[in-house]
């Protein structure tokens, strides 16, 4: 038996704003950051559980503080007990009525809960000697349903329906796992499409994306309509008619504006329009989807929890569900979101990029393929080719497909040298820039 | 001219869990708390701007930290400039794209923005020598609309519609202000109805409430159906047929459960059912409202922002809108919520109680009466008679009506002795309790 002996939170920021990687209509100058947690134990195995919340700079300290306050309750606790019932460990945080007031189930506090439970998942998968996706796939339908919280979902998904989906998902699951390891999983790239890039850079990166084997690219839109038309024309001309081009407005518009703007871009045969308006606007997304049909609407990276996703599925607000590894309450809540998506027959194409999102969210897509939806149709994981070098097990995309990881853990562990360099504000990377 | 010279945040908690004041089906043991902000300047006037976020205990430190990080940007800034354009001061925080990632517009970060802008409002009203409600009423329709953010609202409320509402609101506004000062504003009391109270205490407090002049009381429900029936029978028998009895489930139920439970309580002729399910569930509230009609559904104390309120009004999810002084992004966002409610013809009955909520939210109801809805029909402010003694200008209810304050400021300033006693964990009130 072992005990949690340390909780260490770190404010880690990368100076991405200098190169305008990640710039879009709402986020002109992000510094991709991680409010990062390490859970240490007194076990001889020397393993650390790691989890994080992705942010884009200022406020990363606020998130790190929330994680620190929340996680400190686990110091001195029995590790085997915490890991044996991950549903109970998660609910201990979710159902703390005093902490719940700070959301409920949204924003800084909810993301902190996600980081903490994800760190325990990382530790548990490492102890099991399995990558997280395979570790989740090894659980029975009953064990999986016991991980989630069906409160507020019963009008859309009952416990029995969740069990049915997971039981059906067992058919052929071993074959799908083997196929994943052999062939990987589809990726799409946002690399060419950041607003801060010149037309020349857009064209070069779009050409390279196709050469690299990607079948979908994504462009940011919403700052200037004429710019969008010009950039989409360049992109479509460069990639040809058979490569899918998605667009992403990052919540820039009101409803009429979204519809009118996108009607003018429809000629470019778009794969989807992502985040056309507020991520809280279930009814607004539904109206946009109706009026822009058949152009699909995608959203999810800022959707706060399973209750909003439930409504978006009920109201047909989205045709592509973009789950995020760090936005909701961790692996547990994301399992319930995968089940909701399966129930409504909507494909999940996770949001990734940022820092560490590709590394972590991929596990959820593989679990979805092996155990839940059993399908890759219309499914792919976002990929942005930056900051992977800071992770112990970096995400890898070859020929437009993710290589499926086999290393134990959840993919969230950062390299010690990277932490040392980019811890904010004292890391030597930052002192060099600022000094 | 003067400069912001200090930002001081304090974690202040009151040991309310010891007496079970404030206990309900979701919150069995709250310690009412305030993450409290003082903004100091170098002006000779010696005035301090105060604002806070109400929480119920653990996590108050997380909220205080968020306020500290956020507010620190204003140290060294020109006070007159910040106060002259409160729309710009607010938007500087709301539109900080890096901080926005932590919500957007919800939870810990959004409430922190509310506390900071409310502290500036307190300072501005004090400098003007006016209570906040009167200070807001002194602004022109154009000045008021410039305070708010209509983004994501245009499908429900345009700038022209907002201006029209405010221009119509000027008719008779001086008479209504005079009437407020003479006669006060309706209150209702939650005092008798906490779940932790014995039947005897419920009966005694209900009898006292009627004797004190209240025309509505509220009971917490949702923990046990038979208990609810017994308690409502006691309450109805005690207050007679003419006093309104509202009920509050504090998010306890899923949709079917809410409908089935409340159908069994309908015989007690209820004024409303409050928070039957998740505050995020616009569609769920709408379905509950349809199936329970004509029993009104009320919600709002946990509604995160104007975008959710907009949808709840569009979908007819609520018949009573319960704004909260601390949940959303402060006075500015609450003005937009009052305008939405006026547009849809829904009465606003603010959530209060807790600590400092009565003191602060009353200003918004008076502003609503004087300048927006122009009506008291179906409108009243919640009142819970505790913790008022900690405020410099405590809320006062006489004969079932709020006495309207005339002291300058927003009502948020706490007494120095109270702060000293209950600052957590070092205040002498806490050191005495904890041994």
Automatic annotation (TrEMBL), chains A, B:
Q: Which residues form the Mandelate racemase/muconate lactonizing enzyme C-terminal domain?
A: 199-295
Name of the featured protein: L-fuconate dehydratase
Q: Which InterPro entries match?
A: Enolase-like_C_sf, Enolase-like_N, Enolase_C-like, L-fuconate_dehydratase, Mandel_Rmase/mucon_lact_enz_CS, Mandelate_racemase_C, Mandelate_racemase_N_dom, RHMD-like
* Domain of life of the organism encoding this protein: Bacteria
Q: Tell me any Pfam family this protein matches.
A: MR_MLE_N
Q: Where is the signal peptide?
A: none
Q: Which reaction does it catalyse?
A: L-fuconate = 2-dehydro-3-deoxy-L-fuconate + H2O
UniProt cofactor(s): Mg(2+)
According to the UniProt entry, what is the EC number of this protein? 4.2.1.68
Keywords recorded for this protein, A-Z:
Lyase, Magnesium, Metal-binding
């Amino acid at each position: 038996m072992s005990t949690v002996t340390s909780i260490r939170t770190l404010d880690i920021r990368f100076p991405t704003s200098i190169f305008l990687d990640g710039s879009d209509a709402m986020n002109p100058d992000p510094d991709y950051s991680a409010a990062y947690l390490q859970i240490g134990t007194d076990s001889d195995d020397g393993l650390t559980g790691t989890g994080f919340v992705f942010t884009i700079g200022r406020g990363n300290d606020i998130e790190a503080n929330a994680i620190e306050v929340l996680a400190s309750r686990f110091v001195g606790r029995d590790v085997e007990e915490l890991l044996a019932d991950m549903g109970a460990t998660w609910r201990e945080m979710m159902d703390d009525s005093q902490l719940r007031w700070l959301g409920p189930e949204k924003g800084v506090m909810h993301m902190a809960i996600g980081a903490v439970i994800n760190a325990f998942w990382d530790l548990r998968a490492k102890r099991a000697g399995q990558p997280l996706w395979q570790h989740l796939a090894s659980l029975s339908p009953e064990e999986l349903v016991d991980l989630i919280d069906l409160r507020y979902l019963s009008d859309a998904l009952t416990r029995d329906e969740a069990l049915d989906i997971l039981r059906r998902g067992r058919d052929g699951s071993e074959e799908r796992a083997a196929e994943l390891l052999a062939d990987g999983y589809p990726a799409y790239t946002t690399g060419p499409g950041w607003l801060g890039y010149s037309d020349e850079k857009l064209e070069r990166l779009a050409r390279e994306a196709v050469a690299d084997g990607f079948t979908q690219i994504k462009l940011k839109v919403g700052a200037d309509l004429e710019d969008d038309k010009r950039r989409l024309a360049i992109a479509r001309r460069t990639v040809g008619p058979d490569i899918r081009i998605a667009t992403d407005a990052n919540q820039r518009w009101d409803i009429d504006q979204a519809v009118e703007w996108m009607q003018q871009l429809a000629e470019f045969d778009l794969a989807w329009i992502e985040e056309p308006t507020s991520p809280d606007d279930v009814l607004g997304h539904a109206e946009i989807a109706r009026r822009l049909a058949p152009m699909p609407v995608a959203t999810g990276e800022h959707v706060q929890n399973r209750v909003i996703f439930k409504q978006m599925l009920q109201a047909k607000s989205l045709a592509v569900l973009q789950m995020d590894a760090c936005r909701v309450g961790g692996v547990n809540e994301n399992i319930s979101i995968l089940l909701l998506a399966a129930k409504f027959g909507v494909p999940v194409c996770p949001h990734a990029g940022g820092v560490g999102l590709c590394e972590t969210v991929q596990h959820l897509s593989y679990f979805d393929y092996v155990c839940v939806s059993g399908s890759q149709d219309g499914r792919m994981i976002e990929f942005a080719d930056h900051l992977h070098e800071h992770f112990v097990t970096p995400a890898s995309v070859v020929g437009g497909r993710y290589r499926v990881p086999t290393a134990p853990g959840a993919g969230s562990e950062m390299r010690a040298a990277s932490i040392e360099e980019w811890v904010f504000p004292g890391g030597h990377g930052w002192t060099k820039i600022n000094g």
